[in-house]
Structure to design on (117 residues):
């Protein structure tokens, strides 16, 4: 049984994660990096991104929207919103016709994110 935490791979979908994957792929194809090392780099990226925001975000905002759908699967919440208005701390407003929010628990005590072998 392995109690090592499993980190979200969600950040790989962003531009930074996609660029890292492309760079690793190029190095592996050019035989300048072993595939196992590339996988290890991606796991470290997941860990760093997953933990990087915990306790570092102080900004607050309020949101008003029409909730179209929501779901919870494997401790990941997905919200599909319409006619969204975010109001920031400084009263600045950001609006969008459609928005999808994907949220993963950041609670380090959350045991549902542990990997069992």
């Amino acid at each position: 049984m392995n109690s090592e935490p499993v980190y979200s791979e969600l950040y790989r979908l962003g531009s930074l994660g996609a660029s890292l994957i492309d760079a690793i792929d190029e190095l592996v194809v050019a035989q300048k990096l072993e595939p196992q090392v590339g996988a290890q780099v991606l796991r470290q990226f997941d860990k760093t991104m997953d933990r990087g925001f915990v306790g570092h975000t102080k900004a607050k905002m309020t949101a008003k929207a029409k909730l179209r759908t929501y779901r919870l699967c494997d401790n990941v919440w997905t919200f599909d919103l319409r006619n969204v208005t975010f109001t920031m701390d400084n009263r600045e407003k950001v609006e969008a016709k459609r928005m999808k929010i994907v949220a993963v628990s950041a609670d380090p005590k959350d045991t549902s994110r542990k990997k069992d072998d």
Q: What stands out?
A: Residues 61-105 form a domain with the TATA box binding Protein, subunit D; domain 2 fold (CATH 2.30.18.10).
